[in-house]
């Protein structure tokens, strides 16, 4: 993540922290979620098909894609005495696929051991919700800033064999193809005071352009189911 992005997020966290601590008793949440992109990721499915059938057709270990992503996160917020829910947080969702074997390129034989990873980090600048009861809350995070990358590592490569590099090269500034902007709708259920389940839907405002061909973009709308351990008072 670029320095400018980090500075913006830190500034938002400071402002949000002041607001959260002023409203009432705070809590901290450690989260884990599973996600699926509602529109799928047809661009990446096309990449996997191309690798398996055109680029590396003789790989013994073939690439797979199943549209299931998962990852950890954290959340910091408060429930006020009048039933409002205010929070900020960060979460990660990722998927990786692997292929290996022999292949031929430009008349020469090579050995490949390739891992490709899709990663979407999401920062909720602020979430606003309302508590319908002690055990149920619904709300919205209207401004979610994210960072989306498709990364590739080939351990048999002579150039940076142990490093992940971007599969799609291009500008990586604040408003580049790596930066996402969207919103999240969510509903929370507390089966226990210290344990929360969340169902949410992330809406991507602008498809993530990759700059490699017209209309070749990733639409990152996703369904998410999250479990969280809550440390502190949620009331």
Overview of the molecule:
This protein is mostly beta strands and 235 residues long. 15% of the residues lie in helices and 57% in strands. The protein contains 2 helices and 12 strands, in the order H-E-H-E-E-E-E-E-E-E-E-E-E-E. The protein has helices at 3-23, 42-55, and strands spanning 26-37, 59-61, 69-79, 84-105, 108-133, 136-154, 165-166, 179-192, 195-204, 208-209, 217-218, 222-232. The strands form 2 sheets. It has an 8-stranded antiparallel barrel with strand order 1-3-4-5-6-8-9-12. The longest helix is centred in the first third of the chain and has 21 residues, at 3-23. The chain is elongated, with a radius of gyration of 20 Å.
